[in-house]
Amino acid sequence: MVVLVTFYACSTTTADQTTPPVVTAIYPSSDTLPANLLRMYLHFSKPMKTIGNLENIKLLDENGLEIAGAIFNNVHELWDNEQQQLTLIFDPSRVKTGLNANERLGRAIQVGKQYQLVIDGLEDVEGYQLKETFIKPIFGGPVDTLPPNTEKWKLKIPTAGSRSPLIVQFPAMLDQHSLLQRLQLTNTSNVPIKGEINIVNQEKEWRLMANAPWLAGDYILYVHGRLEDPAGNNLNGLFDHKIGSLKNAQEGLIETINITIKK
After folding, report:
1. What is the pLDDT of residue 5?
2. Which of 257, 167, 263, 166 is nearest to 215 (CA)?
3. With contact defined as beta carbons under 8 Å apart, do 233 and 148 qualify?
4. What is the pTM of this model?
5. How many Cα neighbours within 13 Å face the side chain of 10?
6. Per-residue confidence (pLDDT) for residue 241, from 0 to 100
7. How would residue 237 be classed by pLDDT, with cut points 50, 70 and 90?
8. 249: which DSSP letter?
9. Do 42 and 85 touch, CB atoms closer than 8 A?
10. What is the DSSP string of 72-136?
C-alpha cells in the first residue's frame, strides 16, 4: 500500500497586525480560463474572517453587471487552516451540462467574453478591510474537455550530484492546490524525497528542489487519480462525464511514473 505524503507551499506572515490585508495571489493565475471553470483559490497576506465573504466577491460581465449565482454560496466557506486561502466554487449545477441550472442559465463564463472577478471589503481577523479592491480580469476560453493524462507529461530529470530541480511539464494548466497535494516522489523503498515544491508557468509546471543533492538510482513519481485541472477534470475522466465514460470504476487510483537519475 502506498501512502502519499502531502506537501504544502508555506509562507511566513510578517505583516503587522494593524496592516490592512491584501490579495497576494489568485489561482488559476492565467487570465484566459475555460468556460467550464469549477474552482479558484484566493490567497491573502493575513488570516481572514471566515464568514460573510462570498457576498463581497462578484463576477462582473463586460458591462460591469454582476452575474448572479456565478459563485456557489457555501454555508461554510472553504478556508485553509491558516485562514489565508479561500476556495471559490463556481456553481457546479451551472457548470455541468444536463442539470436544470445549466439548461436555464448556462455557464457563468461564456467562450470569447470578458469578465472581472472583483474582491472587496473582506476583513482580516483583526477587523481590518482589504487595503484595496482586487480585480482579476478573466477571458472565457474554450470548454476544457480533456482530462489530465500522464502519458503527455514531459520530464526534465536532474543528474546525480546536482541540486537542479526535477521538473514535470504539463500540456495544459492543472489545479494549483491539487498539484501541491497529489504528486509525490519517492525512492524505490517508498521513502519520500523531501524538498521544496514550486508550481510555475501558469500551473503548467511542477518543480521539486530536493533538500540534498540527487543520488543516482531509480525513483517513483506517484500521481493520485484525483489530480485535477481547473475545470474539475481528473485522471479518471471529465467532471462533466457521461455515464460509463470514466477510466476506472473506482476513483482515487494511483498512477506511477518511473524515473532514473544517472551519474
Report:
1. 37
2. 263
3. yes
4. 0.87
5. 6
6. 63
7. confident
8. S
9. yes
10. ---SS-EE-TTS-EEEEEB-HHHHSTTSHHHHHH--SS-TT-EEEEEE---BBTTSPBPSS-EEE
